[in-house]
Amino acid sequence: MTADTRVPPARPDPDAAAFHALFESVAAIGRTERGGLNRLAASAEEGQARDVVCAWLAERGFALQIDPVGNVYARLGLAGAGSDSPCILTGSHLDSQPRGGRYDGAYGVVGACVAADAIRRARPAGCTHDLAVVIWTNEEGARFAPSMLGSGVYAGQYATDYALASQDGQGLSLREALQAIGYHGSGQGPSSPAACVELHIEQGPELERQGARIGVVEGNWGTMKYIVTFQGVAAHTGPTPMAERRDALLAAGHLIVACRSLSDRTGGRLLSSVGRLDVEPNSTNVVAERVRLYAEMRATDNAMLEQACADFESAVQEAARAAGVQAQPVRVTDRPAGRFDAALCDRIEQAATGLGLSTRRLHTVAGHDAVSLRRRCPAAMVFVPSVKGISHNEAEHTAPEDLEAGVEVLASVLWGLVHQPVA
Amino acid sequence: MTADTRVPPARPDPDAAAFHALFESVAAIGRTERGGLNRLAASAEEGQARDVVCAWLAERGFALQIDPVGNVYARLGLAGAGSDSPCILTGSHLDSQPRGGRYDGAYGVVGACVAADAIRRARPAGCTHDLAVVIWTNEEGARFAPSMLGSGVYAGQYATDYALASQDGQGLSLREALQAIGYHGSGQGPSSPAACVELHIEQGPELERQGARIGVVEGNWGTMKYIVTFQGVAAHTGPTPMAERRDALLAAGHLIVACRSLSDRTGGRLLSSVGRLDVEPNSTNVVAERVRLYAEMRATDNAMLEQACADFESAVQEAARAAGVQAQPVRVTDRPAGRFDAALCDRIEQAATGLGLSTRRLHTVAGHDAVSLRRRCPAAMVFVPSVKGISHNEAEHTAPEDLEAGVEVLASVLWGLVHQPVA
C-alpha cells in the first residue's frame, strides 16, 4: 500500500491512508467507552455508519442500490451498464454485537471499499465482469434472528418477508427498523453474481499462533443453534415446598452443564456454548416461570455434529424432567460444515504469495455472509490475524500492517476476477 | 362483618362492602392482563395505589405522615394528640413482584384500613394507645434491594441514606423514584411503637391443607440471600477454543444445580432457589462475560442454614473453578429464624377463637415487614389461606370469606391492643 499517486498504477495499489481514515470514521460510530462497538443491526448508529460508507462510495462514482432487507450494493460499472452484467461481490457487515469489537465486519466493508477503489483508480481495461461492494444486513444476529439474514435473503435461503418480519427484543420488526434509518430500499442486488470474496478478521488464534499473515478460508465448520423454551410455574421461593416447584431456571442450569459436557466428551473438538438466557420474571424470590435458552454447537465433522444434536435434545428432556417443567427445543440454525470454492481459494493463496505474505489454510468456525453466498455463487474468504484470537469483545484487535495486507490481497484477487473470473 | 350501620357498635365491626370496594380499587392499579399485578415499588402505579389508600384514610380523619423513605403512617388519634404517644401499628405494603398476585401486601394494607376504621366507628373509650395504619416501602425487593427496606429503616436496621441510595435496574435511586411519585416525605413514624400486627395471605399451602381459617404466625424461617458475581471473558462462541473459554454462564449453571442439591440433601427441609440471573452481554454467540446470580436459602433450623451457607460458598468456588472464572459471593440478607411475640400470638388465637374461626400456628417462610418490626417492638402476624398455596404468581387467590375473616380477627386484636397492649 502506498499513498495515492497522481499517475494511475498498472495494478491496483490500495490507498493505506484512505483505508485507515475511513476505518476510523466508521469505528467512531457506536464506539463504547472501552474502545469497542455497540452498533446493533439497523440501529441509529448502524444507519450512521452506513451513511458514511455510502457517501464515500458515491463520491468515488459507485452506483448504489439498496434492496428491501437493507443490503447495499455499490457497483463500479466496469463492464456494461446494466444490472444484468455478471458481477464480482465483495463486502461484509457493519452491525456489531452489543459489546463487540471494531474490526468484526466493518473491516471487510472498509477493506472492500478501498480495494474496489484501487481497482477503479488502476483504470482496468478488458474487464469481463463488474465489481460491487456490499454491506449485508444483520450478520451478527444479536438484534434480529437469525444471523446472516441479509446475505441469506440475497442467496435465496430466506424470503424477504420472513426477514423483514423478524423482531428485536422490543418487538420492533426489521422492516420498521430499516425504515427508521432509511435503508428499506426498493432496489436489488446484482442478478448474476459470478463470485464473492469476503475479507474478515479471523476471530480466533490460529493465524497468530502459526505466524501466518493471511488465512485462506477453505470452508466452514458446521453450526447448529437451538432455542429451548422451558416452561415452569411462577411461585414464591419461600413457602412453596421444594417438591412442588416447577423451576424453569433449574432446568436451564442442568442444560448449560450438560451442553458443556458434550464438548468435554470430544476433547473440545465439538464447540458448544450457551450465551444467552431470557428469564421470566427474573426476580430473586420468584421461582422462574419461563426461560429461553440459546445454545449452539459447532464441529468440522458433520457426523459428530448430528450426534451432538441428538445428545443435546436428549439432555433438554432430561433437564426438563429433573426440574419438573415442560421443554420445547427448536433448531433455528442448521448449517452443516462445507467448503468454499477451491479455485477461488487458490487465487487468494497466489495473490498473497505474490505479495510476499505467508498463508495458512483454515476453516472458519464463525458464520459469515460468504457462507450464505456459497448457495448462489463461488465464494471464499480472506482472513487476517486477530491478536490473541479475541473477538466479540471490546478488546478485539488486529495490527495495522495486517489490516493493510488483507486489503492488498483482496485488491489483487478482485483485479484477477474482474478480468478472468473463476468457473 | 356487616354493612355499615348508623348506630355505632360496642365492638368493632369491619365493613365488608367497604373492604371489597377499596381492595378492588387498589387491585385495579397495575393490574396485568391475567388478573395479577405489576406494581413495582415507587413506580407510577404504586404511587397511584398509595394515593387511593391515603385519600380513603384522610377522608375518615386519619392524620397522615410520610417519612423520607416513603413509609406512610396514618394515625387515628385515639389517645393524646402528640406523635410521642405510644402507638399500635398495623399495615403491610402495596408494591408487587413484576408479575405478582393482587393479595400479597395489598390485602394487609386494605385490611388494616378497614379494621382501623371499624375501631374508629366503634368510638372506643379509655384507650391507652393510639393506632396507625402503615404502608411500608419496597417490601418485595423486586425493584430495589434489599427487600423490606422501608420497615427495615423504621426498625433501625438500615440507615435512611442507605435505603434512598438503592438503585433499580436502570440506575434510578429509590430517592429519585419516591420524589417522582411524591412520597419522599419529611415526616416520621410513631416514635413509641407498642406493638405491630400485620395481616397477610399465607402464600403457602399449609392452612388450606389443614382446613384452618386463620394462621397464627409464631415466627419466621431463617433466610439467607446471596448475590454472586461471576466474572469471565467475552469471546466469540465460534473460534475460541473450549479450553480457553472463561464462561460466566457456565459457572452460573453449575451453581444453580449445586444450590438445588443442597436442598435435596436435606429432603427439602432446606428451601433454596436461584430466581434471577443478569447475564452480560447475553448474546447467543458471545461467551458470557459476567453473570450476577441471585440465590437464597431458607430453613427453620439456624444450624442447618449456616451449614448450607458454608456449603453454598464452597459451591460458588467450585463452579468458578469449573468454568475458569472469578467469583465474588456477597451475603445480602442474613435473617436468622426467630419468633414473634408470644403474648401477641395468644391474642390473635383468642380473637380468632372468639369469632368461631379455626386456627393453626405456623412459621412464615417468606419475609415480611413484621419480621423487620420485631427489632423495635412486639410483633406478630395473622395469615389467611392462599388457594393451592400459589403466590408471586398472577393466579394468587384467597376466598372473599377468608379475606373478611382475617380483617375481623385483625380488628378484634387491635381493639384489645388499644385498650390494653401487651408488654
For the sheet with most strands of chain A, the description reads: 9 strands, mixed
Distance separating the two termini of chain A: 30 Å
Q: Main interface pair?
A: A-B, 75 and 75 residues
Proportion in β-strands of chain A? 15-25%
Q: How are helices and strands ordered from N to C of chain A?
A: HHEEEHEHHHEHEEEHEEEHEEHEHEH
Count of helical segments of chain A? 12
CATH superfamily membership of the largest domain in chain A, which one? Zn peptidases
User: Quick one: CATH class of the largest domain in chain A?
Assistant: Alpha Beta
> How many beta-strand segments of chain A?
15
Shape of chain A: globular
Q: Can you characterise this structure?
A:
2 copies of one chain form a homodimer. Chain A has 423 residues and is an alpha/beta fold. Chain A has 2 domains: 16-221 and 337-419, Aminopeptidase, CATH 3.40.630; 228-335, Alpha-Beta Plaits, CATH 3.30.70.360. Chain A has helices at residues 16-27, 44-59, 106-121, 149-154, 160-165, 174-181, 206-210, 248-265, 302-323, 342-354, 369-373, 400-419; strands at 63-66, 72-75, 87-93, 130-136, 193-201, 214-220, 222-231, 235-236, 271-280, 286-287, 290-299, 326-335, 338-339, 359-364, 379-384. In chain A, the strands form 3 sheets. In chain A, strands 1, 2, 3, 4, 5, 6, 13, 14 and 15 form a 9-stranded mixed β-sheet that branches. Chain A is globular and about 80 Å long. The model of chain A is unreliable at 4-9 (pLDDT under 50).
